[in-house]
Fold each of these.
Amino acid sequence: LVAGSLAMGAAHAIDMSIMNDMYIGFDVDKTSIAFKTLEQVDYARIYQSVFTAYTPYIGYEIYPAFALELGYYNSAYRPKTVSTIKGSVPIAGTSNAKVTGWYLDALTEYNVWEGLDLLGAVGVERIQLGVNNVNSVGYYLTPTYVLGAQQQTVARLSLGLGYDFTKHMSARFMVRANNATLAQTAHYVMHYSLGVQYAL
């Protein structure tokens, strides 16, 4: 009985220790896609290039100033009136696109001032440009002429600043870059985010 009680106590202590090293957070993310021209189609004129996404995440501090973080982002659909050409063929209509994705980052921090930290991270990201529907004028805005929903897994780099209000509550600003080409329709993707986080 004593041994059983000790084992239960040890297990509870381990659980509490794990919880004490975890944090949760929420970012508002501005995602910017640097579209390019592919096969005579200017994709910057086909889809919206800037999306506002919302990013809940959870992290675990493995060592002091080093953590693993898992997050998910999702934006609303944004319509765009399309008016461009492919060679001499007009492309016109309305597109409706959004971005979603998840990421896993290894994050570190360096204290530069009391409460102020320089943040850096490397990780992997799964990004998707989703197309809900495309209403064409005539028949021009069709998969024959443009590429629709695209998804890709890419590496990413992040830099930012964090500020600790209390032992448990902090805020951060992050700039993230990845080399997603989205089926060769883009050069790269940038994320600019501002959010808060709570250490458990």
Amino acid sequence: MINTARYGLWALIITWAIGNASVVWADLTAQWEMPSHDREFQVEYLDDNHVRMTIEDDLYMLLLDGRMYLINGDSVLDVEAFRDRVSEWSVTQFIMSRVDERAKMIPEPEDLVDTGRTENWGGVSGRVYEAELTHPESGETERREYVLTQDPRLVTLRHAMQRFSDNNTESLESQRLERMQSAFREVFGEDVALLRYDQRYRLKQISEEPIDPTRLQLPESATIKDMPGFGDMLTLARLALPLAMD
């Protein structure tokens, strides 16, 4: 259960953190930092049908020919095979309630203020915007910064990761997730990517070095499961908790 919710969170996070492009790129590798959680993740893009998202050394997701898999050590899960079965689980509902709250923290387009500053992260330049937001639970206001870029490589990755998200969440509380994604598009547009989101996510580096095709293949002789095991749930719960509470 948490597995499905967890996939949804990572797909949403990375969709927002990354950046629809007419330029076609191949062999892109982007590494991202999450300073508030002292964590990194990496996205490798070979083409639209071969994308890998690495969360930890032995924990990663593969998007292969439109189908998503989670690899956790020797365990391989077919996400679509069990996604529908867990959408009503209580913890899934809790995670989706956090999605609703996150959507309320997305600024309105008119609230984004151009600071006139630029920043460079991972060798990519972007323009800094800020907005004042009100937390839906505490009522407290805070100012957040958004660094936007039109770098075609990051916009291409945004497009790829949008498919990651769409494939994963189309039957999991899809209306909630659609509202959040629509809000992203309304505020940030289709031709930009987020280079940095306040102190939560920022690009560390991006390269166009050739990717070993075996990194975007399922492990040899892997047995593909259609439901998560207890170990899978514990791992994903541990990863999901700080994101659900941010």
Amino acid sequence: MSTASLPYTAPSASTRTAVSAASFAERAAVFLVGLLLPAIAISPWGFAMGGLSRATMVDVMVLLTLVVLLASRRLRVDGYAILYAASLVFALVLGFGFGTSGTDVRWTAIQFIALSMALCYWVLGASIARSPALIKALMAGVVAGFLWEGVIVLHDMIMPAAWFPEADSRRTQGTFRNGGQLANYGFSAAGLVLCYGWPLWKKRSTRLMMIASALFPLLFVIAGSRRSAMAALLFWLMLYLAIGFRSTLKKAYPIILIATVGIAAWLISNWDTFSQTYFGSRAMDAYEQVESGESTFQLQFAAAMDTFWEWFPLGAGLGRGNYMTGGHAMVMQSWEIHNGHLNIAVESGLFGLVAFYALVIKALLHRWHNDFGKSTRAVRILTFTFLLAGMVFMIHNRLHRDRGFMLFMGLTSAIALAVSSDPRRSGTPLQHGQPVLILRRTPKAR
């Protein structure tokens, strides 16, 4: 069937102008979101609720971007997002119902706003996936964002007087509240660019530049000295080397493998020297605490499981993770459990746990029939392994609240379910470099 025989009416000049203006507004808004992600913790703007440090001007920018996408009919809210939102509302009601003081209600409200905003980032990622032009804008913004953040991090690592001094002078926090948040951002930014920063560009030089730039935010993980982030990245690298063998980046695979083995051999042979460094001493401290059975992680796990079964299957309610069963309240370092999986289980119960995992599993299990999937298997394997690494990171982190990771997860979920087609030739797959993604149910492979 020829293109000429298809019913197609050229838009009027006024329509073309309106579409062009809307498209520019969308790209500009999405670019700004990526650019401003490192500013999450330095702005005085946001919800004035005291303690809700992660809700800032970036959240306001995200909400405005969602409004722009809604006006242009690109906003995507699927059944999985609605299910998770329903679980948050249910846990909110439980938190208000079980709360016995003004402080209880305050923490419940704070947790609900934080998790709702993280879900908005997921929705933004899923909506951006509707247009490769928006994906490009996001990637450009993220790269620009971690470049300006990198200037600050490098300065504070090298120079004696830091622009943003950390409480522990041996760690670097950049523009974030602490080194842990800097590491979180580096982990998520690396995943965004490494998985999606290069497939839609035709030029080999541009694609290589995007892949190389994705390694830069990994410096933030080291600078922030986040042990769980380093463990997650190590798990991701090992998993990729195992699954990606003879499948992706065939020319680079031997280099990556040799470099990994070389670094491992150096660490083993120089372990005494490495253990004297700050990061090495932190790693040894963690090992000794786990070996003694008295680590914060182990105590929290026991307390959280007791509390989970006490409130099973409903959950204790949002913001009530600090009400631990069995006299374990003293093991809490903050007002919530420092384990994303257990935090969801305790506060949102079985319903919330299933709803959150649904956001992840659909991206892990679905076949990819789209521009990204057809261009190379590298995207699917990189994304699959990175998502699993994120779930490992959640064992000692709260990625379900982390804005950057939820943006990555929303983008991943939508792309995994996307179908590439020409809007004037329904069902005809696009070739790589002709990116138009129309999200609908993926047809079964023939």
